[in-house]
Design a protein that fits this description.
Blueprint: E1 7-14, E2 20-29, H1 38-48, E3 53-60, E4 68-75, H2 104-118, E5 128-133, E6 136-143, E7 146-152, H3 159-166, E8 175-179, E9 182-186, E10 191-192, H4 198-214, H5 219-223, H6 232-245, H7 252-274, E11 280-282, E12 291-293, E13 298-300, E14 307-309, H8 315-321, H9 324-341, H10 347-371, H11 384-398
Parallel strand pairs: 1-4
Antiparallel strand pairs: 1-2, 3-4, 5-6, 6-7, 7-9, 8-9, 10-12, 11-14, 12-13
Helix pairs in contact: 4-9, 6-7, 6-10, 7-10, 7-11, 10-11
Amino acid sequence: MAGVKPRTAELLLVTPAGAPVGCLPAVPVATPWWPDIEPVVAAVREHHGVDVIVLRLLEAELQQPHGGRVTYLAEVAEGVRAARRWSGVLDDHPRRHAFARPSGPAADLAWANAQLAARGLRPSAPPTQVRTWNLSSLWRIPVEGQTVWLKVVPHFFAHEGALLALLAGAQVPVLLAHDGGRMLLAEIAGHDLYDAELPLLLEMVNRLVELQCAWDGRVEQLLALGLPDWRAPALTAAITAVIERTREEISADDRTVLADFVRGLPGRFEAIDRCGLRDTLVHGDFHPGNFRGDGRALTLLDWGDSGVGHPLLDQPAFLDAIPEACAGALRAHWLRQWRAASPGCDPARASILLAPVAAARRAVIYRTFLDNIEPSEQVYHRADPPRWLSRTAALLRAG
């Protein structure tokens, strides 16, 4: 990615019981992305001959992701000769996720192995840590004849496993087992589709609209699983609150525009309702990179951000993530799909009215993350609520 500095990683090591072992000198890492842990583990093994499990980010040189010098806390099973003495103090924090604590990943892997054994499956090689950050822990586990994935998420995403169970048979990951925030997922053929071209992008929209039509009128079942409520009353309250909490981080001009926006939200939602589309399942992070495919099938991943609300809340993020040359065709196709699915509706007007609401919802989501993660990992999201509220104000000015 242009403009992103290379990443170097220094590790503070602890035992599985949490006792400090020492520091390992910084190593160059192949990718800049802070949550991307597989290359960190590989670099430490190459430079220091040590196998580690990375637990969490401790500090970063830069004020926002990605690149630069980062320091991680990592677990090691035995003494490390290369480690330098460290005399600092490791604190505890009530918002620390279980997978970010010493022995937390071991407990997750033990659960996964028990689930595999219950299905007559045995790991054929050691598991590989792929990613860890404040929103998930991800492991790849080779099993005889296949690969399975262990995904662990914090409590505010814990509805993902139950939702995948409910969506079984749709084009979503195949859930082998789940327990709270732990999920064991089958391998998905193909590759991530960040760079998909127009025909495939159109098919992604088709898949989403089909799912949303299937759940139209069944939102109470989704809410019972713990999905967030982004229907008009709840979203109005959440947007109002996040604007008030973020007011000192945005410009005076933006505060004025957003104050008018809040006052007009009840009328805006009434106008959206008159457009004729009902609340349903919202993916919440709908973009091409959350699809995986092999030319024969498409699978929509990462349902932790999902909620209940207007179906076109998913449109702006997708259109932002695709080549500008494709946006017009995608928007027109999206509107045609909804007109066919719900004759008499006005998705074009709904999408215009929803654009600033969708941007403000992103500020709500990032504020939720910040409220539920410990301070050292807030660097991932600290700039996002004011950034999305400024985007909301810009959309309102342009509207």
